[in-house]
Each structure stands twice: as structure tokens, then as C-alpha cells.
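Q: Can someone sanity-check these two? First one:
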Amino acid sequence: MTDPGAERSEAAARAARERSERERETPPEPGSHRCGIVGLAGRPNAGKSTLVNRIVGQKVSIVSDKPQTTRTGLRGVLTRRGAQMVLVDTPGIHKPRTEFGRRMNAAANEALHGTDVTCLVIDASAPYGRGDAFVARSLPGDSVVAVTKADLVGRRAMLEQLAAMGGLDFEAYFPVSGRTGQGVDALVEHLVGRLPEGPALYPDGAVSDAPEAFRVAELVREQLLAAARDELPHAIATRVTEWDWPLIRCEITVERPSQKAIVIGKGGSMLKAVGTAVRSQLPEGAYLQLTVRVDKNWQRRGGQGAPRRRVTG
């Protein structure tokens, strides 16, 4: 059965891409171009990545219902007539329990330095709590607030969420839905209006600054998170170890042998399903080879620990 919500979401994404293409066809007047960096900050699973993908018009950041899916400051690029907005999708700020978690928080804070506008992302479907207030206190007073997942709550719940944030005294508040696009245009117009004048930072047509190898590794992790659900919350990492087109080798790291068995699946079924799903998002002819290894201490060290092999191609 076709999901009407998914159809509307895809139609809105196509409309955003078509609008951006039309705007690019008409060059801006000299001296009127705006360009700047917008940093998105918030708790884990607040909807930052979905919002970035919606604004850009295509997927540049993987999405999962698991907290802390985003692990680095990814950049999405929206280019339109007279403006270019660079969106920094940061890891969710949380109370860390490992060195890896501490590094994720540090990466989020570092990514917000030097941005022209900060956007606090709050989940409308979850109570506004101490974690949200902690993030808010660290942000500048002229920050913009995007209250996401508006499609999941009613008007009354949204008003209650906005009232709970009444003491923040930020510049502007926008109820939005990254999934359906509700309210996103108004948020984008406001953010673009806040950008300083200046030339574009990225070439026309660019949607992200992430290397292709990084993108493939993230796609593998996204599919594993979706397939394994609750069995692998934070105990998985991925990286491309060899790129010699059309061959792409991607290594999956887990903490325990039991997790390795889950990732491989009975008779290799999990790896096969993940590989098929990822290849469907790659150029035709790509050959993706997945391997799994166990490193019980990779999170404590703040990374995977093993030396990286050279990525060719």
C-alpha cells in the first residue's frame, strides 16, 4: 500500500529542487548575493538531519530513529537565486558515557563555532527538558528555534511546547516538519535573510561537502541501524577501506562477537540485504563488499582504533 505521507514528502522534495533550479537560471543582481553558515544544534533525535535533507532537497545526512545517528558536523548546501546557505548538521548533544560520546559532543560544539546563524532544533513530540535547556543555554541570544515533527503533534501540543520555551527569549520560533515540509519555507526565508552578503562558498550544484567514500560508509550504517533496530544502538561503526571503482570495500566494526553475528545474519542474510539497499542508492555498476570485525574497545578510545587503509580511486 502506498504511503500518502511519503508521497507528499517526495512531491515536496521535488518541488523544492525544481524551485532551486529555476532560481539558479536567473542570476542575482551584482552586490546582492548572500552567503553564510547556519549551525543546527539540539538533543539527539531532535530531527536535525531530516530537516537538513528537507531544506537541501535531497539526502545528505543519514536518518534513523536511534539517538546520536549523526557523528560529525556534516554540511548540506542550499543554492538559490541570490543566496547560498550552508547547513551544518551537528551530532546531538548528550550526557556522554564513553570517550567516543565526549568526542561527539566536542565535534558538535566545534562545528557551531564560526557560524553566521545558530538554529536550535527542538522535538515537538517529546517534553522540553533539562537536556534541551542545557543546549539552549550554550547558544547565542539571537538564535532561531525550529520546533520539529509538527506533523506528529496537534496544535495544542505545539503551543504547549512553545510555551515551555518561553523563557529562552530567542529571536524567532518556527514550527516545522522535516518529513512533510510543513513550515520549512518560512524558516528558510528567515535564515536566508540573516545571512551576510558575500560570494558563494561552494560551486553551483553542490549539495554537500562530504567525500563520496564517507557518504557510502554512512549509507551502510543507516541501513544497519534500520535493519538491526534495537540490537545495535551505538555499538557499530563503518568506514570505506578501499575505493577502486567499481569496487568499494566497507568495513563494519562492532564491539562483541554476538553483534557480529547479528550484522552478518543467518547465512549472511543481513549483510546481503544491507548491501542491496545501499547499492540501490549508488551509481549503476558499483560493487560493494562488506566485511565485519570485532573491536571491543573502539568506543572507549573515541574511534575505531585500527589504522586506516588507503582509499584508492
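And here is the second, same format, sequence then C-alpha cells:
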Amino acid sequence: MKKCTFFVSLLLLATTFAGCNSEKLYEASINYTIEDGVIVLSEPQRQEGQTSLLEFRAEPLDTVRVGFVGLGMRGPGAVERFTYIDGVAITALCDKYRERAEEAQHYLRAAGMADATLYSGDEGYKALCESDDVDLVYIATPWQMHVTIALYAMEQGKHVAIEVPCANTVEECWQLVDAAERNRVHCTILENCCYDHFELTTLYMAQQGLFGDIIHAEGAYIHNLEPYWQHYADNWRLEYNQANNGDIYATHGIGPNCQALNIHRGDRLDYLVAMSTKSVNGTKLVKELMNEEECRQGDQINTLIRTVNGCTIDMQHNVMTPRPYSRMYQLVGTEGFANKYPVEGYTFKLDQINKIAEPGTLPDIENLNHHTFAPKEVVEAMMEQYKHPVQRQLVDGIPLEEYSKRVGGHGGMDFIMDYRLIYCLRHGLPLDMDVYDAAEWSSMGELTRISIENGSKPVRIPDFTRGEWNKIDGLTHYFAE
């Protein structure tokens, strides 16, 4: 087959080459080629002095000194949650608007903690990152600032935790990987849905083999944002939706699925195909709120992904239509099935349950029907038996699952996410989610846009581990001895 090769940069929007069929080309942050109908992005080589951060362990920190950047919608809740975690000192608070940083002090005072140093302005984050009194920079700003702040923090030797998505382009994803490897610091993604109680339990079931071989997963971010658009400072989120087609908020759906499929730990995302509907509600919205005639993002984005080991993932994104909230979380295995939205439940083959479950731990299941969800009493017993070790982890003598529900944050999953981050930093353990997860999950935004703008061509997903995706056998949540 004749191969037509195209090189595309931010400055080159459309070009044709002699000898190739005429095709319209679209900008991308990284040069790419179209090889046998598949879009392949260039992958930068690891530079001298950089080494892999898979299973990376940093020096333990007895007390983790945290600086928060971004105190608008998500940041204040994180500050409050951190006041419930032992071994934390909140030493710095930063926002573009100083009054927001000042307002966040009351969480510290309510917890009997010392006031934090305040930073503000467009570049207030720089002084925070340069401070000798900060170990971890927690970034909850608008998406457009995530990478700028994270890179600056890592160059100052700070660990970073970044709200989702961590980056907006593939080039930015590589920048995060290289900065973390170069400076030997953690760069984690604040993907709270990986700590949802159902997702954690289901993950542990999968790790114990209850579903057999998982061959398919589904995930989504379906959330009508109509009541919230005007609450985003300076209209940053609607502006981003207006300017970018693609699944720009994929991490809530893809994160839990990648963990269940052991992505970067025995399997790898291979390629994706994406398409979008026309923009109807989005166009009306941007015309009303921005006086713009076009919304580039379709109202519904659909993406199919295939892994190297032959599994598939179905992803959706929709923030424009009145669909009930859904992350569509679903695992399809050869021996069982899990589903969270719109109905939560499990289905298993009877012989699989009998083979794996401990004798006497489940109700009578002889009449299990494979065409429906397992009976409620069976599901409840199984969810108790297969509760993830993270959920059982004790905090002041209370299981973390129960403790997290008392603190709150999306039903407690936000607190579990924060607690695990601090726990691993304090004990010098590998984090549950590393920089390669942060890069790959965040890269979906631009990769899906490239596919859509090129007529839904397949796009090869970059290997951010640079060939080391199969050196670890399965995901491990580490605990101190």
C-alpha cells in the first residue's frame, strides 16, 4: 500500500503533497504522519539523564507541606479535606484573586491549624513553588494553567498533584512526563473517580479474577452543565468547549477502566477512533453567553479504544443535553459483568462464584439467572467480601470507606484520593496513579480531536512509558509494612 506522509505543526493547518490523494490536514501540538490510514504522532526520545518513574518511590516525608494553587470551585473543598489528614501542614494558599486565598484561611482556623502564607496574582504561583516551605503543589486552577504551573513546580523540586485533565495537548503530556523524570518527583492526576466505592470494590473483584478475562469496558462523562456555566471564573470552561472538539474531559471515565485493564502494567492503549455529533445546544449556548456563532465541540462525542492485548473501551462525553448524570462505568468479563449507571449491579456465572467465593460467605445462589443482575442480597454480600484493601485501611481506627463518607467530597471519593496521596508520600511508596497515567488519560482530549477532524481516522495512542508498559504485572495499591 502506498504510504502518504504528512507533517503538521501548529503553524501548518492545511497542505497537500504530490503523489497523495488530496486531504485536509489539521493542526496538532505534535508532528504526525498518516501511515496506511492510521494517524501516528511523533514520540520524543527520553533525554540523557532521565529514567523511568514506574513504581517510583520518593524519600518519605514525615509531614507533607502542601501549597494549594486555585481556590475557585474545586480548591476550597480540597483545602478543607486536607485538614482531616494527619501528617499534613497547609503552608501556602494561592489564587489569582487574593480574596479567594484569604477566604480559604478559615478552613485552617476552624481546624486549629496555623495560617498559611498567601499568594495572588497571575504569577503568584511562582513564589509559592519557590518556597522552601512547600513539598507538594496541589493544582486546581482552570485547565489552561495546569501544565504551566506543574512544570514550574517540578523544576523547583516539588511534587505535583493536578486536577483533571492534567494537560490539554499531547505535547503538554510529554512535557509533564519529561519534567517528572528529569527532576525525579511525583506528578499525579487528581482522578477522584478511581476512588468511588463501587469502582474500588469492582476493581478488587477484577483483580481477584471474579470477572474472568476482562475484554471490554465503558466510561463517560455525561453531565448537563447548564446550571454551572456562568460560575466558572472568566468563562474559562465554556471558552474551552467552544474552541475544542473532542473528548476533552475523558479522565473520569477512562481512569477506572485503565486501572481494571492494567494499562501501563501489562497492557497498553493502542489506538482510538472518535466522532462527534453536530453542535446544537452548544451553539445556542455560546451565542447567548459569548456572542460566538460557532461551537466547535459537538454536543455528543463517542470514542472507541482498543488495547494491545485486544480489549476495547467505549467512551462518551456530553455536557450539553439533558441526559441524567452518568460515568457509564462498566466492565465486561468472560465470567462476569459490572455496571454502575443507570442501574448498579453485577452478573456472574454461577460456577465462577462457587469457584472463587469463600464457602459459607454468600446467600443461597443456586437460582442465579445470568440474564439479570444478581439478587440484592448476593451483591451486598459479595461487595462486603471483596471490599478493596484501600477501603478497609484504618484511619483513627475507622475504615477509610466509612471515614471518607463522614468527611465528604463526592460521596467520600475525593477524601480517599487525597488521603492515599498523602499516605504514599509520607511512607515513600509508589502513588496509586503516576505521571504516565496522568499523561495518557489527559491526552484523550487532543487525540480524539485529531481523529474527528481527520474524518474519524484511527489515531495511534502514544506510549508515554517509552516501551516499558509491560514491565509491571498488574496495578498495586501499596501499604506500609
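A (reply): Looked at the second one. Residues 152 and 478 are 28 Å apart (CA to CA). The two ends are 57 Å apart (CA to CA).
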